Amino acid sequence: MANTIASLEKTSWNNDKSNLGEILKTTSETLSTQVSASEERANRAEQRAIQAETATMIEREWRVSLQQKEVKLKEQIANLQTYVQDFKSEVQKNGKLKAELDRLHHQWSEAQRTLEELGIQLSESKLKVSELQEKERRQKQLLQNSTILPLGGNVMNSTVGAAGIWAPDSICTHCTACKKEFNLTRRRHHCRSCGEIFCNSCSDHSLALVNENGQLGKPVRVCLACFASQK
User: Which spans are transmembrane here (predicted)?
Assistant: First the structure.
């Protein structure tokens, strides 16, 4: 029985030893699997951490870049606002200069017309002086060549509708007809018939006058009164 018991114990020990080996093997395999899984999870976690850190760095760099761009854009906006203000100032200056240029151009045009009118008046005055000198010369010649007049005879020198002597510009500051004051735009005009000074509105008619030879000349400027008296 002792041998039998020893044999049984030995058999039981061998069985337990075999089972324990399988258990240990299974446990080892399980632990290995768990370690592998843990390492894999650790690797994935590390990769996610690296990715998160990389994303954080990228986001930080992106924010820094955006801040730098924002600063540059603010500077550009400030420069553009300054440019707009300067441009508005230049536009206002150009507007004032244009208005001043238009005013000066208008004055120049009026002065040009005045000079042209004065030139015409000067030419007409010279022509008038020449005509008067010629008339005086003819009258002297007629007096020298004339015979003795009959007793009680009269020399008739009536030139109805002939041109009169012009009044000087310096003595007339207002229109003879409407009494409006002369200025840069309201200029003086002589009536070629009576010789008085009128504005353009009061002397805008034309009439052919009789010259010293008793002939009608070309139509010239006359006032309303002289125009009405000859109609």
Answer: none
